[in-house]
Amino acid sequence: MSESGGTPAADTEYGIFLPIGSGGWIVSETAPHPEATYAYNRRAAVLAEQYGLDFIMSMGKWRGYGGATDHWGRTLESITMMAGLAEATERVKVWATVHTNLFHPAIAAKMFTTLQEIAGGRAGMNIVVGAYAKEFAQMGLWDESLAHGDRYRWTEEWTSVLERLWSEQAVDHDGEYFRLDDCRSLPHPATRPTLIAAGRSEAGLDFQSRHCDGSFLTAQDLPGLRDACRDVKLRAEKQGRSIRTYSMLTVVMADTDEEAEARRLEYGRGADVEALVNMKVSWGLPQDKALSLTAERPEDEAFQTPFVTGSPQTVAERIREIVEFAGLDGLMLIFPDYHTDLADFGERVMPLLRPAGARGEG
Protein backbone atom coordinates (compact mmCIF):
# COMPACT_ATOMS: atom_id res chain seq x y z
CA MET A 1 0.00 0.00 0.00
CA SER A 2 1.22 3.49 -0.77
CA GLU A 3 1.46 6.33 1.78
CA SER A 4 -2.21 7.00 1.14
CA GLY A 5 -4.91 4.69 2.38
CA GLY A 6 -5.64 3.46 -1.15
CA THR A 7 -7.44 4.42 -4.33
CA PRO A 8 -11.18 5.19 -3.98
CA ALA A 9 -13.14 2.07 -4.86
CA ALA A 10 -16.11 1.89 -7.18
CA ASP A 11 -18.30 1.15 -4.18
CA THR A 12 -17.28 4.24 -2.19
CA GLU A 13 -20.49 5.39 -0.53
CA TYR A 14 -21.79 8.93 -0.25
CA GLY A 15 -24.63 9.92 2.00
CA ILE A 16 -26.07 12.84 3.93
CA PHE A 17 -26.41 13.64 7.61
CA LEU A 18 -29.98 14.86 7.76
CA PRO A 19 -30.75 18.14 9.59
CA ILE A 20 -33.02 16.57 12.19
CA GLY A 21 -32.15 19.44 14.58
CA SER A 22 -33.02 23.08 13.94
CA GLY A 23 -30.08 24.97 12.47
CA GLY A 24 -28.54 21.96 10.79
CA TRP A 25 -24.81 21.56 11.31
CA ILE A 26 -23.46 25.11 11.11
CA VAL A 27 -23.75 26.95 14.44
CA SER A 28 -24.07 30.47 13.10
CA GLU A 29 -26.42 33.43 12.90
CA THR A 30 -25.34 34.14 9.31
CA ALA A 31 -25.70 30.59 7.89
CA PRO A 32 -28.86 29.04 6.46
CA HIS A 33 -31.05 27.67 9.23
CA PRO A 34 -32.67 24.35 8.21
CA GLU A 35 -35.83 23.71 10.17
CA ALA A 36 -36.40 20.49 12.08
CA THR A 37 -39.47 19.44 10.11
CA TYR A 38 -40.37 16.21 8.40
CA ALA A 39 -41.13 18.09 5.18
CA TYR A 40 -37.64 19.62 5.05
CA ASN A 41 -35.93 16.30 5.77
CA ARG A 42 -38.16 14.42 3.34
CA ARG A 43 -37.16 16.77 0.52
CA ALA A 44 -33.48 16.30 1.39
CA ALA A 45 -33.87 12.50 1.42
CA VAL A 46 -35.63 12.46 -1.95
CA LEU A 47 -32.91 14.67 -3.45
CA ALA A 48 -30.20 12.36 -2.09
CA GLU A 49 -31.86 9.42 -3.79
CA GLN A 50 -32.51 11.34 -6.99
CA TYR A 51 -28.84 12.25 -7.37
CA GLY A 52 -27.43 8.80 -6.70
CA LEU A 53 -26.27 9.07 -3.09
CA ASP A 54 -26.25 5.85 -1.12
CA PHE A 55 -27.57 6.52 2.38
CA ILE A 56 -29.36 8.97 4.61
CA MET A 57 -28.70 9.11 8.34
CA SER A 58 -30.17 11.02 11.26
CA MET A 59 -28.83 11.65 14.75
CA GLY A 60 -30.62 11.28 18.06
CA LYS A 61 -30.75 14.52 20.04
CA TRP A 62 -32.84 15.34 23.11
CA ARG A 63 -31.72 18.82 24.16
CA GLY A 64 -30.33 21.84 22.32
CA TYR A 65 -27.51 24.25 23.09
CA GLY A 66 -29.25 27.61 23.39
CA GLY A 67 -27.39 30.71 22.24
CA ALA A 68 -28.69 33.31 19.82
CA THR A 69 -29.71 30.58 17.37
CA ASP A 70 -31.15 28.16 19.97
CA HIS A 71 -29.11 25.56 18.13
CA TRP A 72 -30.86 22.18 18.03
CA GLY A 73 -33.51 23.53 20.37
CA ARG A 74 -36.07 21.81 18.14
CA THR A 75 -35.44 18.23 17.05
CA LEU A 76 -37.32 15.30 15.57
CA GLU A 77 -37.01 11.71 16.76
CA SER A 78 -34.70 9.65 14.58
CA ILE A 79 -36.34 6.22 14.31
CA THR A 80 -39.87 7.36 13.58
CA MET A 81 -38.66 9.94 11.06
CA MET A 82 -36.58 7.38 9.22
CA ALA A 83 -39.59 5.05 9.02
CA GLY A 84 -41.40 7.81 7.15
CA LEU A 85 -38.40 8.42 4.91
CA ALA A 86 -38.18 4.70 4.15
CA GLU A 87 -41.65 5.03 2.61
CA ALA A 88 -40.62 8.21 0.76
CA THR A 89 -37.59 6.55 -0.90
CA GLU A 90 -36.87 3.33 -2.75
CA ARG A 91 -33.10 2.81 -2.93
CA VAL A 92 -31.07 4.76 -0.34
CA LYS A 93 -30.14 3.07 2.91
CA VAL A 94 -31.96 4.56 5.90
CA TRP A 95 -29.87 4.70 9.06
CA ALA A 96 -31.49 5.77 12.34
CA THR A 97 -29.88 6.43 15.72
CA VAL A 98 -30.64 4.68 19.01
CA HIS A 99 -29.24 5.58 22.44
CA THR A 100 -28.57 2.39 24.35
CA ASN A 101 -29.28 4.11 27.68
CA LEU A 102 -32.80 5.09 26.57
CA PHE A 103 -34.07 2.04 24.68
CA HIS A 104 -34.20 -1.45 26.15
CA PRO A 105 -32.68 -3.90 23.64
CA ALA A 106 -35.99 -5.79 23.31
CA ILE A 107 -37.76 -2.54 22.37
CA ALA A 108 -35.02 -1.58 19.91
CA ALA A 109 -35.04 -5.07 18.37
CA LYS A 110 -38.74 -4.82 17.62
CA MET A 111 -38.55 -1.23 16.34
CA PHE A 112 -35.71 -1.92 13.93
CA THR A 113 -37.27 -5.16 12.72
CA THR A 114 -40.28 -3.04 11.82
CA LEU A 115 -38.10 -0.36 10.18
CA GLN A 116 -36.28 -3.05 8.20
CA GLU A 117 -39.60 -4.37 6.90
CA ILE A 118 -40.79 -0.88 5.93
CA ALA A 119 -37.47 -0.17 4.22
CA GLY A 120 -37.31 -3.47 2.37
CA GLY A 121 -33.91 -4.38 3.80
CA ARG A 122 -32.34 -0.89 3.71
CA ALA A 123 -32.39 -0.12 7.46
CA GLY A 124 -29.39 0.57 9.63
CA MET A 125 -28.93 1.22 13.36
CA ASN A 126 -26.46 3.85 14.52
CA ILE A 127 -25.64 2.70 18.05
CA VAL A 128 -24.80 5.58 20.39
CA VAL A 129 -23.57 5.32 23.96
CA GLY A 130 -25.32 8.30 25.58
CA ALA A 131 -22.59 10.57 26.93
CA TYR A 132 -23.99 14.10 27.29
CA ALA A 133 -25.29 14.12 30.85
CA LYS A 134 -27.75 17.03 30.63
CA GLU A 135 -29.68 15.41 27.77
CA PHE A 136 -30.54 12.43 29.91
CA ALA A 137 -30.53 13.99 33.37
CA GLN A 138 -33.51 16.10 32.30
CA MET A 139 -35.43 12.81 31.98
CA GLY A 140 -34.06 11.33 35.19
CA LEU A 141 -32.17 8.79 33.08
CA TRP A 142 -28.53 9.69 33.69
CA ASP A 143 -26.62 7.22 35.83
CA GLU A 144 -23.62 9.08 37.22
CA SER A 145 -22.15 5.85 38.56
CA LEU A 146 -21.42 4.62 35.03
CA ALA A 147 -17.99 5.77 33.85
CA HIS A 148 -16.99 5.77 30.17
CA GLY A 149 -15.80 2.17 30.22
CA ASP A 150 -18.92 1.09 32.09
CA ARG A 151 -21.15 2.64 29.43
CA TYR A 152 -19.37 0.59 26.78
CA ARG A 153 -19.79 -2.59 28.86
CA TRP A 154 -23.49 -1.70 29.04
CA THR A 155 -23.61 -1.21 25.27
CA GLU A 156 -21.64 -4.40 24.60
CA GLU A 157 -24.19 -6.38 26.62
CA TRP A 158 -27.08 -4.41 25.07
CA THR A 159 -25.90 -5.24 21.54
CA SER A 160 -25.28 -8.91 22.31
CA VAL A 161 -28.84 -9.20 23.62
CA LEU A 162 -30.16 -7.35 20.56
CA GLU A 163 -28.40 -9.73 18.17
CA ARG A 164 -29.78 -12.76 20.03
CA LEU A 165 -33.31 -11.37 19.89
CA TRP A 166 -32.93 -11.03 16.12
CA SER A 167 -31.86 -14.66 15.71
CA GLU A 168 -33.20 -16.84 18.56
CA GLN A 169 -36.75 -17.97 19.23
CA ALA A 170 -36.54 -17.02 22.90
CA VAL A 171 -33.83 -15.36 24.96
CA ASP A 172 -32.90 -16.01 28.58
CA HIS A 173 -30.24 -13.65 29.83
CA ASP A 174 -28.99 -12.75 33.30
CA GLY A 175 -26.22 -10.22 32.80
CA GLU A 176 -24.55 -7.30 34.52
CA TYR A 177 -27.13 -4.79 33.25
CA PHE A 178 -30.01 -6.69 31.63
CA ARG A 179 -32.21 -9.59 32.59
CA LEU A 180 -34.50 -11.32 30.09
CA ASP A 181 -36.77 -14.26 30.89
CA ASP A 182 -37.99 -16.29 27.91
CA CYS A 183 -38.07 -13.02 25.91
CA ARG A 184 -39.64 -13.29 22.45
CA SER A 185 -39.09 -10.90 19.54
CA LEU A 186 -40.79 -12.30 16.47
CA PRO A 187 -40.67 -11.98 13.58
CA HIS A 188 -36.94 -11.76 13.12
CA PRO A 189 -35.71 -9.32 10.48
CA ALA A 190 -35.32 -11.03 7.10
CA THR A 191 -31.81 -9.55 6.98
CA ARG A 192 -30.06 -8.04 9.97
CA PRO A 193 -30.08 -4.22 9.92
CA THR A 194 -26.68 -2.67 9.29
CA LEU A 195 -24.99 -1.77 12.58
CA ILE A 196 -22.97 1.45 12.75
CA ALA A 197 -21.22 3.30 15.55
CA ALA A 198 -18.82 6.18 16.10
CA GLY A 199 -16.08 6.88 18.61
CA ARG A 200 -12.30 6.87 18.80
CA SER A 201 -11.70 5.58 22.34
CA GLU A 202 -10.14 2.16 22.83
CA ALA A 203 -13.44 0.86 24.17
CA GLY A 204 -15.36 2.38 21.27
CA LEU A 205 -13.08 0.94 18.59
CA ASP A 206 -13.10 -2.49 20.20
CA PHE A 207 -16.90 -2.42 20.33
CA GLN A 208 -17.11 -1.45 16.65
CA SER A 209 -14.65 -4.15 15.62
CA ARG A 210 -16.73 -6.84 17.36
CA HIS A 211 -20.25 -5.83 16.38
CA CYS A 212 -20.46 -3.16 13.69
CA ASP A 213 -20.57 -3.13 9.91
CA GLY A 214 -19.59 0.52 9.73
CA SER A 215 -17.41 2.87 11.78
CA PHE A 216 -17.72 6.68 11.72
CA LEU A 217 -14.34 8.21 12.49
CA THR A 218 -12.96 11.65 13.29
CA ALA A 219 -9.40 12.92 13.67
CA GLN A 220 -7.42 16.14 13.97
CA ASP A 221 -5.98 15.78 10.47
CA LEU A 222 -5.91 13.49 7.45
CA PRO A 223 -2.96 11.37 8.64
CA GLY A 224 -4.84 10.83 11.89
CA LEU A 225 -7.95 9.81 9.97
CA ARG A 226 -5.93 7.38 7.85
CA ASP A 227 -4.43 5.84 10.99
CA ALA A 228 -7.88 5.50 12.58
CA CYS A 229 -9.21 3.74 9.49
CA ARG A 230 -6.34 1.29 9.49
CA ASP A 231 -6.69 0.73 13.22
CA VAL A 232 -10.39 -0.20 13.27
CA LYS A 233 -10.07 -2.36 10.15
CA LEU A 234 -7.17 -4.27 11.73
CA ARG A 235 -9.14 -4.75 14.95
CA ALA A 236 -12.07 -6.16 12.97
CA GLU A 237 -9.76 -8.41 10.96
CA LYS A 238 -8.41 -9.90 14.20
CA GLN A 239 -12.03 -10.71 15.10
CA GLY A 240 -12.46 -12.49 11.74
CA ARG A 241 -14.70 -9.67 10.49
CA SER A 242 -14.58 -6.74 8.09
CA ILE A 243 -15.78 -3.21 8.69
CA ARG A 244 -16.36 -0.19 6.47
CA THR A 245 -15.10 3.24 7.51
CA TYR A 246 -16.79 6.62 7.09
CA SER A 247 -16.19 10.21 8.06
CA MET A 248 -18.16 13.47 7.93
CA LEU A 249 -17.55 16.46 5.68
CA THR A 250 -19.32 19.79 5.21
CA VAL A 251 -19.44 21.07 1.62
CA VAL A 252 -19.60 24.81 0.87
CA MET A 253 -19.74 25.22 -2.90
CA ALA A 254 -20.17 28.05 -5.41
CA ASP A 255 -19.36 28.67 -9.07
CA THR A 256 -15.77 29.64 -8.25
CA ASP A 257 -13.32 28.87 -5.47
CA GLU A 258 -13.31 32.53 -4.46
CA GLU A 259 -17.09 32.73 -4.18
CA ALA A 260 -17.22 29.52 -2.15
CA GLU A 261 -14.58 30.79 0.27
CA ALA A 262 -16.43 34.10 0.66
CA ARG A 263 -19.56 32.13 1.45
CA ARG A 264 -17.74 30.10 4.10
CA LEU A 265 -16.30 33.22 5.71
CA GLU A 266 -19.74 34.80 5.85
CA TYR A 267 -21.13 31.76 7.65
CA GLY A 268 -18.18 31.74 10.03
CA ARG A 269 -18.61 35.44 10.76
CA GLY A 270 -21.87 34.77 12.57
CA ALA A 271 -20.59 31.95 14.81
CA ASP A 272 -22.94 31.49 17.77
CA VAL A 273 -20.27 31.45 20.47
CA GLU A 274 -22.69 30.85 23.33
CA ALA A 275 -24.17 27.75 21.68
CA LEU A 276 -20.71 26.46 20.77
CA VAL A 277 -19.48 26.87 24.34
CA ASN A 278 -22.60 25.14 25.69
CA MET A 279 -21.94 22.28 23.29
CA LYS A 280 -18.37 21.84 24.51
CA VAL A 281 -19.47 22.00 28.14
CA SER A 282 -21.90 19.16 27.35
CA TRP A 283 -18.88 17.12 26.28
CA GLY A 284 -17.49 17.55 29.79
CA LEU A 285 -15.11 20.49 29.24
CA PRO A 286 -14.93 23.17 31.95
CA GLN A 287 -16.65 26.43 31.01
CA ASP A 288 -13.42 28.46 30.81
CA LYS A 289 -11.70 25.83 28.65
CA ALA A 290 -14.71 25.62 26.33
CA LEU A 291 -14.76 29.41 25.94
CA SER A 292 -11.02 29.55 25.32
CA LEU A 293 -11.14 26.88 22.60
CA THR A 294 -14.12 28.49 20.89
CA ALA A 295 -12.65 31.99 21.01
CA GLU A 296 -9.46 30.93 19.21
CA ARG A 297 -11.17 30.52 15.83
CA PRO A 298 -14.93 30.90 16.13
CA GLU A 299 -15.28 31.21 12.36
CA ASP A 300 -14.01 27.61 12.04
CA GLU A 301 -15.71 26.35 15.20
CA ALA A 302 -19.07 27.28 13.66
CA PHE A 303 -18.59 24.26 11.38
CA GLN A 304 -18.91 21.16 13.52
CA THR A 305 -17.00 18.99 11.05
CA PRO A 306 -14.10 19.34 8.63
CA PHE A 307 -15.18 21.28 5.54
CA VAL A 308 -14.22 21.79 1.93
CA THR A 309 -14.93 24.87 -0.14
CA GLY A 310 -14.67 25.54 -3.83
CA SER A 311 -16.11 25.17 -7.28
CA PRO A 312 -17.67 21.84 -8.26
CA GLN A 313 -14.37 20.72 -9.78
CA THR A 314 -12.40 21.69 -6.67
CA VAL A 315 -14.91 20.04 -4.34
CA ALA A 316 -14.79 16.79 -6.33
CA GLU A 317 -10.98 16.83 -6.27
CA ARG A 318 -10.84 17.45 -2.53
CA ILE A 319 -13.34 14.67 -1.81
CA ARG A 320 -11.34 12.22 -3.91
CA GLU A 321 -8.14 13.24 -2.11
CA ILE A 322 -9.70 12.75 1.32
CA VAL A 323 -11.21 9.36 0.51
CA GLU A 324 -8.03 8.11 -1.16
CA PHE A 325 -5.55 9.33 1.44
CA ALA A 326 -7.53 8.15 4.46
CA GLY A 327 -8.67 4.90 2.86
CA LEU A 328 -12.30 5.64 3.64
CA ASP A 329 -15.17 3.53 2.36
CA GLY A 330 -17.58 6.44 2.45
CA LEU A 331 -18.34 10.03 3.36
CA MET A 332 -21.40 11.46 5.09
CA LEU A 333 -21.97 14.93 3.69
CA ILE A 334 -23.42 18.05 5.27
CA PHE A 335 -24.74 21.08 3.39
CA PRO A 336 -25.62 24.60 4.56
CA ASP A 337 -28.93 24.49 2.66
CA TYR A 338 -29.91 20.90 1.96
CA HIS A 339 -32.39 21.75 -0.75
CA THR A 340 -30.39 24.18 -2.90
CA ASP A 341 -26.88 22.94 -2.10
CA LEU A 342 -27.62 19.22 -2.29
CA ALA A 343 -29.29 19.66 -5.68
CA ASP A 344 -26.29 21.68 -6.91
CA PHE A 345 -23.90 19.03 -5.60
CA GLY A 346 -25.95 16.29 -7.24
CA GLU A 347 -26.01 18.04 -10.59
CA ARG A 348 -22.37 19.15 -10.73
CA VAL A 349 -20.24 17.03 -8.37
CA MET A 350 -21.73 13.54 -8.32
CA PRO A 351 -21.09 13.07 -12.08
CA LEU A 352 -17.42 13.88 -11.39
CA LEU A 353 -17.22 11.43 -8.49
CA ARG A 354 -19.15 8.74 -10.35
CA PRO A 355 -18.99 8.84 -14.14
CA ALA A 356 -21.96 7.17 -15.84
CA GLY A 357 -22.09 3.45 -15.09
CA ALA A 358 -19.47 3.61 -12.29
CA ARG A 359 -21.75 3.80 -9.25
CA GLY A 360 -21.35 0.87 -6.92
CA GLU A 361 -24.26 -0.65 -5.07
CA GLY A 362 -22.21 -1.52 -1.97
Walk me through the structure.
- With 362 residues, the chain is α/β, with parallel strands linked by helices.
- The chain has a single domain (13-256, 306-353), classed as TIM Barrel, CATH 3.20.20.
- Helix content is 43%, strand content 16%.
- The protein contains 14 helices and eleven strands.
- Strands 1-2-3-4-7-8-9-11 form an eight-stranded parallel beta barrel, surrounded by eight helices. A two-stranded antiparallel ribbon has the order 5-6.
- Helix 3 crosses helix 5 and helix 5 runs parallel beside helix 6 (202-211).
- The radius of gyration is 20 Å and the shape is globular.
- The mean pLDDT is 94.
- Keywords: Flavoprotein, FMN, Monooxygenase, Oxidoreductase.
- This is LLM class flavin-dependent oxidoreductase.
- Pfam families: Bac_luciferase.
List the helices and strands and how they pair.
Blueprint: E1 13-17, H1 38-50, E2 55-57, H2 78-88, E3 93-99, H3 105-119, E4 123-128, H4 133-137, H5 148-165, E5 171-174, E6 179-183, E7 194-198, H6 202-211, E8 214-216, H7 222-238, E9 244-253, H8 257-269, H9 273-282, H10 287-296, H11 298-301, E10 307-310, H12 312-326, E11 330-334, H13 340-348, H14 350-353
Parallel strand pairs: 1-2, 1-11, 2-3, 3-4, 4-7, 7-8, 8-9, 9-10, 9-11
Antiparallel strand pairs: 5-6
